[in-house]
Design goal:
Blueprint lengths: L1 H28 L10 H18 L3 E8 L2 H8 L1 H17 L6 E6 L2 E7 L3 H16 L12 E8 L8 H14 L5 E3 L5 E3 L5
Parallel strand pairs: 4-5
Antiparallel strand pairs: 1-3, 1-4, 2-3, 5-6
């Protein structure tokens, strides 16, 4: 009986260790290795779940699409290792300026995004401008680099639909970049932009 109990405890311990390793592997599969943010695959899953939840409950949600300005020039002037460190630093600043229940992601090479819970356009713009101005006021890496951001903002149910959130945020982001960067633009019928107050 004692030997059987020991075997059962050993099996339980092994199963617990396996479950823990599986959870760690799952976390790694959804994490961007450079920034520590959730990756694009995790974003796609979260976007589907959050839009379905918003449709079901009638709650608002918003999307910020964030581009790190002038990354090609940064890599040419300082090298890719410095560029990578800037990405890490910006990801850290991003986490500091969103709420605990909002979700930040690495969207592409030089883009990040945030899904904002229970937020309409006005709240999303406030958060976007806080992120943008906070980042521009910090000196990053030992090279003391100033990194500005361009941000495209949209929200459901107004002005976007669940299916158009990413495209609409990207359109707003493109306008922010075309206007010179370091700006927050909102996707809406009549163009609205938040001025670059930190210049």
């Amino acid at each position: 009986l004692i030997a059987r109990m020991r075997n059962l405890l050993r099996v339980k311990k092994l199963r617990d260790e396996l479950d823990q390793k599986n959870r760690q592997l799952e976390k790694l599969a959804y994490q961007d290795p450079t920034t520590g943010l959730l990756n694009r695959e995790a974003f796609n899953d979260a976007l589907s779940k959050e839009t379905n939840r918003a449709l079901r409950t009638g709650e608002k949600m918003a999307l910020l699409l964030i581009n790190l300005d002038h990354q090609k020039r940064l890599a040419q002037e300082h090298g890719y290792l410095v560029q990578e460190q800037v990405l890490k630093d910006v990801a850290g600043l991003l986490r500091q300026n969103i709420r605990d229940y909002d979700l930040p992601f690495r969207f592409s090479d030089d883009e990040m995004c945030v899904l904002l819970h229970q937020s309409g356009v006005e709240e999303a713009v406030r958060i976007a401008d806080r992120i943008r101005t906070f980042c521009a006021r910090h000196r990053l890496t030992d090279r003391r680099i100033v990194q500005t951001l361009s941000i495209g903002v949209t929200a459901f149910p107004d002005p976007s639909t669940p299916k158009s959130l990413v495209l609409d945020a990207d359109n707003a982001l493109t306008r922010a970049r075309t206007a010179g960067g370091n700006r927050t633009f909102v996707f809406e019928t009549k163009a609205h932009s938040s001025p670059p107050r930190d210049r």
